[in-house]
Amino acid sequence: MSGLRIDHVSWGVGRRLIVDGVDCTAPAGAVTGLCGPNGSGKSSLLRLVAAIRTPAAGVVRFGEDDLTTMRRRDRARALALVEQDAHTDLPLLVGDAVLLGRTPHRAPLAGPTDADHAVAAAALARAGAAGLADRDVSTLSGGERQRVHMARALAQSPDLLLLDEPTNHLDVAARLETMRLVRSLAAGGITVLAALHDLDLAASACDHVVMLAEGRVVTAGPVDEVLVPDVVEKVYGVRCAVLRHPRTGRPVLAFDLE
Amino acid sequence: MTTTTPRTRTTTRVPGEARPAVAPRRGPRGVVWIPLAAVLLLVTVVVAVTIGPADVSVGDAAASVAGHLGMGGLVEAPSRLVDAMVWELRMPRVLTAACVGAGLALCGVVMQSLTRNPLADPYLLGLSSGASLGAVLVLLVGVSVLLPVAAFVGSTAALVATLLLAGASGGVTPARTVLAGLAVGQAAAAATSFVIFTSAQGDSYREVLTWLMGSVAGSTWTEVAIAGGAVLVLGGLLVSTGSVLDAFTYGDTAAAALGVHVARTRWTMLIGVAVLTGALVAVSGAIGFVGLILPHAVRFLTGARHRLLLPLSALFGASFLVWSDTAARTVVAPSELPVGIVTAAIGAPVFTLLLWRRRAA
Ligand SMILES: Nc1ncnc2c1ncn2[C@@H]1O[C@H](COP(=O)(O)OP(=O)(O)OP(=O)(O)O)[C@@H](O)[C@H]1O
Ligand SMILES: [Mg+2]
Predict the structure, then answer these.
(1) Is A41 in the pocket of ligand 1 (CB under 6 A)?
(2) How far apart are CA B6 and CA B68, in angstroms?
(3) Beta bridge partners of A26
(4) CB of A202 closer than 6 angstroms to any ligand 1 atom
């Protein structure tokens, strides 16, 4: 099967296991949501997949490749990571920030080519941020910054896109816009694994969901099988009903207050 | 429907992009600065050589230099006295200042970027304090090694201590490296103060103070060779790392995600900076502020892209230190100031101004 396979991956700090034998897949051409409470290990798992941390045990495969042992550069051409809260204090234009995504595609000491500029411009347009190219990144709103991060990842031309809370700071329209973009990327054949806090958004935008709690997979599978009242109650300790969206037919979570 | 054969392709597509993107014509924005800065440096060197207690014209200076470069037949030779003044006194001093200024500014850029700390300078890892301790031991205690050698050994020892301390406390991350550098620097500074306090008297005190403040007075072609060689070799390597430093813009994780070997890159570049700084401190003492403010000033002009920032900082740093040194030897003539006092006098207010402008922006 093509796509991402995470096989019994564990990682810890000191004696504490933060990711504990995680086993799951993210099929190619689909959006897989990574859900779970704060501190359940979503960001840590994404970093393990991106091989920024080395797993203590287990293998991460993407298609034919073992991501953990692959050459750094090749890996950076295959996958891009949008971090939960990347920021910089340096004075930098948005266009240059997006160009950083081209780094793995050229010789280590070389500068950006015309082709790199073209890809960066297309990535900006794709992320809905074409008008921002000449702005200084420090002057952007949270939502604009998020789009620029997305554009930077797209400029990397990845086949596997790892997103850590890509809808943070976004209003409802921008959130939907982002998920629409993510869905169209997946439709184009990219494998997407996105950590999402918002279960409703996951329900409406993901094909598959992996539910984490305390570093372990609670359930994983099609959205209809994972986002069910039992699982939500077990993981978050809150009760909810799952309704159907009258037009899209997708699940909608309605939470009980009492 | 998916094809996952990305390894050998030249990937210039944006995922899912249907129509080809129009490349906006973004020319070599800012690159005009480099020839400008180079010309400024050339003019600076020529003019600085003519400034001083005895009158030397640009023609005299050119003739003297031409004579020593084996092109003496082309121009009329200057008098012996003028020739000696240009070739033996002013030229080595001006060139040493230029090399030291270029190296310090370059090291400042790299340090600020690798530690992600806008207040970083080349001395952050305790290098200047280590070098000072070495120098003070020579000047006051009479340890019989050449002063530059002692200073270089001192700075290298400080670097090793810093990296070991950072490594022992859990890895060479930016924050830990800075803290370890502070600790080592403070320890070496305390030792230096102790030595000065217990053994300096009269003139030796003045000599030590001059060295501690930094000075290129009395530079010979040996100093030019040390500083120039270090700047050409190590500085040349550092200048070429623009793309790598750019990859650190959003921090270590982002750099790693762009395919950079973060730990190895940080180690090698820190060591490169340290050896270059050690060589510079050995010839001129610890001249402050150049490595701190030049990077900020140049970033203010051209933004944070390192491919431009590195060479420009080197060129402007060179001109800056030549002019500072020219001021140091002329404003209180016939006496002179340590150039470190001049760079501090200019640097402190400029730094304040830059911070203020940045907040206002
Ligand atoms: N380098 C580290 N050292 C120590 N503890 C860590 C480290 N990285 C993560 N942790 C801990 O591991 C747990 C999981 O963190 P992680 O960031 O993966 O959670 P998350 O699911 O992304 O949470 P959130 O939803 O709040 O973003 C947390 O308790 C965190 O404190
Ligand atoms: Mg997280």
Answers:
(1) yes
(2) 59
(3) A4
(4) no
Closest ligand to the CA of A34: 1
CB B26 to CB A76 under 8 A?
A: no
Are the C-beta atoms of B184 and B214 separated by less than 8 Å? Answer: no
Angstrom CA distances, B174 to A149, B117, B120, B240, stand at 23, 8, 11, 22
* A195 CA: nearest ligand 1 atom: 22
Scan for tokens 């995600």, then name that residue: B257
Residue A250: predicted pLDDT: 93
Average pLDDT over residues A32-53: 96
- pLDDT tens-digit map of B147-168: 888 888 998 899 889 888 988 8
Q: Which ligand is nearest to the CA of A164?
A: 2
Average pLDDT for A58-69: 94
> Tens of pLDDT along A85-108?
888 888 899 999 999 999 999 988
Of B1, B15, B249, the CB nearest to A92: B249
Predicted structure pTM score? 0.88
Question: Which candidate, A185, A107, A93, A70, places its Cα nearest to that of A139?
Answer: A93
Amino acid at B7: R
Q: Which of B258, B300, B308, B309 to mutate against chain A (most A CBs within 10 Å)?
A: B258
Phi, psi of B195 (to 5 degrees): -65, -45
Tokens in use for A115? 């082709």
What tokens does A39 get?
């501190």
The interface predicted TM-score (ipTM) is: 0.92
Which residue type is seen at A66?
D
Ligand 1 atom closest to the Cα of residue A165 is 27
Distance (Å, whole) CA B140 – CA B130: 15
